[in-house]
Every structure is written in structure tokens, then in C-alpha cells.
Amino acid sequence: MNTIEKKKRRIHKSIEKIFKNRNSIPNFIAGETQISTGLAVYDHLEINAVIDTLLDGWFGLAEKGDEFEKALSRYLSVEHTVFVNSGSSANLLALDAVKQLKNPEKKEIITPALAFPATFNPIVQLGFKPAVVDVDNTLNISLEQLLSAVNENTAGIMFTHCMGNPAKIDEICEIAEKHDLFIIEDTCGALGSFYNDKPCGSFGTASTYSFYPAHGITTGEGGAVATNDQELDMIIRKLRDWGRDCRCKSNALDIDGECNNRFNYRIDNFYYDHRYVFSQLGYNMKPLELQAAMGIEQLKKLDAFNKQRKKNFNLYKQELSQFKDFIELPEIYEQADPVFFGLPIIINNPNIDRRDLLIFLNRKKIATRLLFAGNILKQPGYRDIECSVYGNLSVSDKIMKDCFWIGIHPGITEEMISYVINAFREYFSSQV
Ligand SMILES: Cc1ncc(COP(=O)(O)O)c(C=O)c1O
Hints:
Layout: H1 3-20, H2 44-56, H3 63-76, E1 80-84, H4 87-101, E2 108-112, H5 117-125, E3 129-133, H6 143-149, E4 154-160, H7 169-179, E5 182-186, E6 194-195, E7 198-199, E8 206-210, E9 223-227, H8 230-240, E10 266-267, E11 270-271, H9 289-320, E12 327-328, E13 336-337, E14 343-347, H10 354-363, E15 388-389, H11 394-402, E16 403-406, H12 414-429
Parallel strand pairs: 2-3, 2-4, 3-15, 4-5, 5-8
Antiparallel strand pairs: 1-9, 6-7, 6-13, 8-9, 10-11, 12-14, 14-16
The structure holds pyridoxal-5'-phosphate.
Residues 86-88, 91, 116, 118-119, 160, 186, 188-189, 210, 212, 223 line the site of pyridoxal-5'-phosphate.
């Protein structure tokens, strides 16, 4: 072993020691430790992988990027996965690419009102008109409403598996096939959720993922687009990298590039280095190689993380049923096997004031979040959006007014859950 390798080994050992003395999940002190909605759970394995990549001195996506994308494709049961710098970028890239291949002349996209901005915004930003429909009691796009919104201008459907709870994707696919529509599955909060024994995200024309800490795995910031369509994959990659036509690795040492053709490209009657040929109006949405190194390690832990999320969900479901006169959880389709991103709780009693309950929980160090934008059309920045609205969006409105979510991530322990349940008990017993 050379000296550099020996020094690296020493660094690895030191980092490992730090993590031996520091749990990846903080010790819980009731009433003092924040019970968070999201937490990056990692240890020396991720840190050492990142350090190795930093020491290699190459920051742009290279071998680790490839390895992470391949591992993701295997996990998701899809042919191609493109690693990008966030889930929001993934949605923008997916739609920008899909619209070039499918229904380019059509201008409406059906999407639920109950949304996170990153799912809704690309529709408007890319010049489509949102056809806004309601959700059902699983918090997912209502099939009845979806059908009522389909018309000759409909290009596709873009929706979320809300909070990790699978939408009725088999029937959405049937509708899409019948009317020749594309599907973009925002799977940002549903990595590891299944429907009919198939991973969410493996059904649509393209699907998207987020690796921000509250999500299934984390690369700090980060995301991905997955598809089974090779041409789509190529367009997404180009759009991610400024629209660059050349797909050779930027660290390829061969002077002709990996394709052996770098200096043979012609524009008009002269040669032009293929690395500076741009065949798409693209963006820069590239993540870093060190994020890929972290992602590889995180992905190895995903099954264990999801097992813990499911355990937390089941415990909460069982315990919270004692408060059924005050709160309820969303329904789950029979064919769905969800891994919840967070635990959505819906107040079903008119005497419970959400604001008061949330202040009570937060004072007890139980972090809460609202279900993203709620009915996004009610948000100040969206009031003047040109869109078609189908139905009265009453479920989205109810969720906006009466729902919130708490953490269920792998850093949540049984001890924390019993503390949260006691807090709910204290609050609800003071309300009767
Ligand atoms: C459903 C959904 N889509 C997209 C995103 C955006 O992901 P990112 O934060 O990585 O941009 C989020 C983030 O929480 C999300 O919940």
C-alpha cells in the first residue's frame, strides 16, 4: 500500500471513530430534543466516500455518477436514470424533454390542485395550461376528475404520489393509453413505495425523485429523472448539461473523446469541437460527483430506512386510532404498499383549531409541516395563473385548512412516537 493509501486509511479510521462516539440519530431527551420532520441519516460510510471523491480531485460527474445512476435504475426497475441537482430540476427537465417527443402540439396538462410548487410550476413555466383537478381521500389525483378533464388539447398528466402514498397508477395508465397522453410521475416523496408489486415511478413516461434530506435517501440536495425511453433519456441528459450534444465524459482522456469523433463534427463548412455543439436549449442542472458518492452509500441503506419508516407508520396508525374523534390518516389504495415521506394527519372535528394544535405541538418540540402549498391556486403567487379548473376542489381546500404532517423518517424512534402520542393525548383531553 502506498503512502497516500495509508493516509487515506487513517482518515477513514478517524471518521469511523467520530461516528462510533456520535450516533447518526441524536439521543432523545423528552421535551428538549426536536422531533424533526426530516433528517439526513448517515454515518462514516457516506463521509468517507465523499472524502475519497474530494481527494481524487474531480468534482464533475464521472464514474461515481454512472455507478449511482445504474444502481438507481436497478432499484427502480427502469432502463435509464439521470442524476440531477434537485427534485425540482428533475420535474422541469422531465416535462421539457417529454413534451418534445409526445403530443408536442397539445397545450394542457392535467394536475391536482393539492401540490408542491415543484410539481405545478414546470407546467406553467414551459408554456402549458394546467387543467386543475381535485384529489380523493388518499390525497392523490381523483380519477373521476381526471377523466372529466381530458379533452382534445390534453398533452399529459403530471401528478405526485402524495407523501409517498401511491396514486391509482394502473387506472391512470389506462386513461393515458386510451387518450394517448404522457404521464409524469412525481415520485419525489415515494422512493420505495410500490403499487401492484411494481415500484412507483416505473409506470409513467418519466418519473422524478428528490434526494433532499426529508426524502427516502439524501445527497444533500439532488434528484433524478427515470425513464424506459432511450431517446427521452438522451434529451434529458442534454438538457441537464446546457443542451450539449456531446455525451462523452468530461474526464475522458482520449483526445478524440470516448466517441472517437470529437474533432469530426461540422457546422456549415467547417469543423467544430463536438463538446461545443449545443442541440437543445438546456440548463445547468448537474450535481457533483461527491453527491453521487454519497448517494451510492445511501441507496445501500434504503431498504433498512424504508423498513423503519413503515414500522413508524404502523405504530402511529395504531396509536393514533384512539383519537379518531379528532383526527384521521389518509386512505390507502388496496394495491398500494406505501413508504410514507411524512405522516399526514387530517383534523376531522370542527372544534379542533389547527393553528392552536400546531403551536402546542411545536412548543413540545414536535415539528410540524403543512401539506405543501395546499390548494396551490389559493397561494398568492398563483392567483393570476391561466388555468382550467374542474370541479370545486373541495378536498384540496379541506386539506389546505385541516391537514398537517409530522416526521416518520428513519431517525424517529419508538420513544419519540410515544412522546408524540402523549402530547396528542394531553391536547385532545383538554378539548373535551
Ligand atoms: C412532491 C415533490 N416534488 C418535488 C419536490 C422538490 O424536490 P427538491 O426539494 O429536491 O427540489 C418536493 C420536495 O419536497 C416534493 O415533495
